[in-house]
Specification:
Chain lengths: 570, 328
């Protein structure tokens, strides 16, 4: 008992002839269906090329347009001819001109001979499978599809919409339960002739004629009526991407295909000379092998589909540009932003670098130049320390930096004195871990011992900027992980707060740091604050800094340039 | 936009009268052949490697406009069996930097073909280009009804001064100019033509540090299945109709894309810069050549400690400069 092959061909006739010879050499009768849209000259040349093979027949031709009934009709014709002319055939294998047998024909013969009653056909109910071309799972059975999608897309879509609006719902005839699956099957003679000679076939055919992509459902549904043992999988390895487009195999897939142990694979690129040469040669070089295991190939393709649909987070490039509506452009991985820490602690940056594995930059958004760690003039990926370059596209700058340093945690300092264009972006980014000691920018001013009238304007400006920034971080819908302390709050328990931050950076509890950063000397700071207040400047972002001095609340400070906002003490 | 497109088509027909046919072998173009279109001036030294590179990739015919070269390049090209050559002494700038001439050739000979429009210093790299010919890519694009393919310009440069590495004819320029910047590019969307603008790279870093908005555009769409009425608008940065510019995915996914390795920065660059500054025929009066001269001419170094050394397309893919998309 052998098996017969039905070959559906519409192009690449040299390859098809090669395949026919291969199957025939393995002892399989072949019935070929050539798409009627193929030009007569081409068809004749092909017919001539396979004319010398005894058990190879050409069936009568019909037009085979993708997604339409033609493909089923062609298969029916070829199958009828096969069953009629080759009584010795036990199984019938449906293949196309771009299906390449990967294992010797002999092995498939043995495999099928050992399973004489089994039908290999992927066949699942519509509720079980999420089929690639979306939106038409159940509807492909309940609406009518007289227009081929590839040629008349607008008509197709319009007719679908119209039917939906009218509430068209076709009834599936004769208690059939619609099943779908790969169009490439291998059925037993009994099942196939059962389907073809079913007394209700005319009714079924009439129904399936208007079903969408009937070649994926006609035999899959009817096999359920006639088969004794259904093995619901295809012996042909065939993968589709998210658009329903079949994945194609090339020469560089040779090893992958070899190790898959599948019997047949599609689609093969017609010019993949190495594949055809490797798999269509005589079988002596093959070792006997196990059940098909397409797992590795699955992984390669599903990875590619994932790349196409989701892409790499945090990457902006020529073919990935999230527009912020359907998908927010966010950074590749978590990073930390520190505001006020370098002002409050001596040598905060080196301390942080020693305590964590992170790369600790200075003020990346300083107005004059980008302060990369160790004062480098360039950074990973070739980023430049030029402020104009950075400010030309601040978001792109940050995204590039985080993308270029994947696998390494980035920290940088931020302050109200820096370019603020990036601030809204930081607040929106779920990867941003922002820690703010509000009002800490007053500390360097305090240490500079400058006269209050000299720094007055500056204080007012910085406070305004910081208040706006805090407002961003406290707005509803903020995605960043923001921690905000006033300077007064922070100095009460600095190590506790630092430990919290380090734990968050480390992704869990970490032991308290061995080394403690040194806080600057704040003796007299309360006096400085009071002096500011006396000059009519209320540094409310500092919080209620404990006073040790004696001076009380002077009168006449109502001319404050800054009215304490609601953020000050929240 | 339709009017703009018509205007471009008419303009390129008018400009086509500037072209004088030198060798016409276009009768040899077969059905389904992949064509290459290029405009060049005094690039003789690059030609042997350039032609070989693209022949190996699977380009069947070269359509070349020579803009008044005097270095023996046209004579060399005329001898090649797969080259058709046109010559013109007209202004490069007034032909909008060769676009008009290219549009004419593409419209006349390119219809129904996949056409690659590149300069002689641009080397196309696409996913799997080491194992699959260009035809594999175009067949795959055809199967998804995709008509245009993006390949960003990636500036390549040597380590040290440009003048220190003399280039020999026939040599692979990537042997010396093998460094690139892997991640300092800014991307923005053009609302009018719906293409992306990419700027930055080593030129942004060194020449346009203080004037980044003047840095040259790096986005390119060099591979197009040409059809009646198509037109490049500005270099190969964008096309009309605009749907051809949508080579990117706005919802977070990655479309398949490639890279044009740009080997402009060889030792020949200095002489070129001097010539072009005097000719004033380049884009924005050659702001880049000016910046180069201002930056110290031959003493300019593009290399930096974070420069990446070129290995292969997979490296560019991992770095995120190009993407295999769902082509596996």
């Amino acid at each position: 008992m052998s098996f017969g092959v039905i070959l559906l061909v519409h192009a690449d006739f040299d390859r098809a002839a090669q395949l026919v010879r291969h199957w025939a050499r393995g002892g399989c009768p072949v019935v070929i269906h050539v798409d009627r849209r193929v030009k007569p000259a081409r068809f004749d040349a092909f017919a001539k090329a396979v004319a010398d093979l005894p058990d190879v027949l050409l069936s009568s031709r019909t037009a085979c347009e993708w997604g339409t009934w033609g493909l089923v009709a062609a298969t029916q014709r070829a199958a009828e001819l096969m069953l009629l002319r080759f009584p010795g055939v036990g199984h019938v294998y449906l293949a196309s001109g771009s299906c390449l047998p990967l294992r010797p024909v002999r092995e498939l013969v043995d495999y099928l001979a050992a399973r004489p009653d089994t039908d290999f056909i992927e066949s699942a109910t519509t509720s079980d499978v999420a089929w690639p071309v979306g939106g038409l799972d159940t509807e492909r059975f309940t609406l009518r599809f007289p227009f081929p999608w590839k040629r008349y897309r607008r008509l197709f879509n319009g007719y679908v919409r119209w039917q939906r609006r009218l509430g068209v719902s076709r009834r599936v005839p004769g208690g059939l339960v619609p099943h779908m699956g790969s169009q490439w099957w291998c059925l037993t003679r009994a099942t196939l002739s059962g389907i073809l000679t079913d007394p209700a076939r005319a009714r079924y055919d009439r129904y399936f004629r208007r079903v969408w992509i009937p070649d994926e459902s006609y035999f899959q549904t009817l096999a359920r009526q006639h088969a004794r043992v259904i093995e619901s999988r295809s012996l042909t390895l065939s993968k589709f991407d998210f658009q329903g487009k079949p994945h194609v195999f090339y020469d560089d897939h040779l090893q992958l295909l070899r190790r898959s142990d599948c019997f047949v694979a599609r689609k093969i690129w017609p010019r993949a000379d190495k594949l055809y040469a490797a798999f269509l040669k005589d079988p002596d070089s093959f070792a006997p092998r196990a059940e098909p295991s397409p797992g590795r190939i699955d992984r390669v393709f599903s990875k590619a589909v994932d790349r196409r649909i989701r892409g790499r987070r945090g990457l902006l490039m020529q073919s990935r540009f999230p527009d912020g509506r359907r998908s927010d452009p966010m950074t590749a991985q978590p990073f930390s932003v520190f505001q006020g820490f370098a002002e409050l602690f001596d040598g905060f940056e080196p301390w942080l670098a020693r305590t964590t594995d992170a790369r600790v930059h200075g003020h990346l958004f300083a107005r004059d130049r980008v302060q990369f760690n160790d004062d480098q003039g360039t950074m990973a990926g070739g980023l430049s320390d030029g402020a104009a370059l950075r400010d030309y596209d601040p978001e792109g700058f940050l995204m590039s930096l985080i993308w270029n340093t994947r696998g390494e945690h980035q920290c940088f300092q931020f302050s109200p004195d820096d370019a603020q264009a990036i601030a809204p972006r930081l607040a929106r980014d779920p990867n941003a871990q922002i820690s703010v000691i509000s009002g800490a920018w007053t500390v360097p001013l305090f240490l500079s011992r400058a006269q209050i009238p000299v720094i007055r304007k500056k204080v007012a400006h910085l406070q305004r900027v910081e208040t706006a920034y805090l407002g961003l971080l406290r707005a509803p819908g903020v995605k960043a992980r923001a921690r905000i302390w006033t300077l007064a709050e922070f100095v009460e328990a600095p190590m506790e707060h630092l430990h919290t931050i380090l734990s968050e950076m480390g992704g869990g509890r970490v032991p308290p740091p061995m080394e403690v950063p040194r806080m600057v000397d704040l003796t007299g700071f309360d006096r400085f604050l009071q002096d500011l207040k006396n000059q009519g400047l209320h540094p409310h972002v500092v919080g209620d800094f404990p006073t040790t001095g004696s001076s009380g609340w002077p009168s006449g400070d109502t001319s404050a340039e800054e009215s304490p906002g609601s953020v000050a003490h929240s | 936009m339709r009017i703009a497109r018509k205007h471009l088509r008419i303009r390129c027909t008018r400009k086509s009268f500037e072209l004088r046919r030198v060798v016409d072998r276009t009768a040899r173009i077969g059905r389904g052949d992949i064509l290459l279109v290029s405009t060049m001036r005094n690039e003789n030294i690059r030609l042997p490697y350039f032609l070989q590179y693209y022949r190996d990739m699977g380009v069947s015919h070269f359509l070349i406009v020579d803009n008044d070269s005097d270095d023996g390049g046209p004579e060399y090209l005329a001898e090649q069996p797969d080259v058709s050559l046109w010559r013109t002494g007209a202004s490069y700038r007034k032909s909008r930097f060769g676009v008009d001439w290219q549009n004419y050739l593409l419209g006349r000979y390119g219809r129904g073909h996949w056409c690659l429009t590149v300069d002689p210093d641009e080397f196309f790299v696409y996913p799997f280009c080491d194992t699959r010919p260009l035809r594999a890519l175009t067949d795959w694009l055809d199967s998804g009804q995709t008509r245009s393919f993006s390949a960003m310009l990636l500036d390549m440069y040597p380590k040290g001064r440009l003048a220190d590495h003399p280039y020999q004819s026939g040599q692979d320029p990537i042997e010396t100019a093998c460094w690139f910047d892997s991640g300092n590019y800014s991307v923005a969307r053009d609302p009018r033509f719906r293409n992306l603008w990419i700027q930055g790279g080593p030129r942004g870093r060194v020449f346009f540090r203080d004037t980044p908005e003047q840095a040259p555009a790096l986005n390119k769409i060099p591979l197009v299945k040409w059809s009646r009425g198509y037109a490049y608008v500005q270099s190969t940065h964008m096309l009309l109709p605009r749907v051809l510019n949508k080579v990117y995915d706005p919802s977070g996914g990655e479309k398949t894309s490639g890279v044009l390795l740009h080997t402009k920065f060889l030792d020949t660059f200095g002489a070129k810069a001097a010539e072009e500054i005097s000719r004033q025929q380049h884009y924005a009066a050659g702001a880049e050549y000016q910046a180069y001269a201002a930056g110290g001419g031959d003493a300019v170094e593009l290399w930096c400690p974070w420069s990446e050394r070129y290995l292969n397309w997979r490296q560019l893919e991992v770095l995120g400069l190009m993407s295999q998309g769902n082509w596996a």
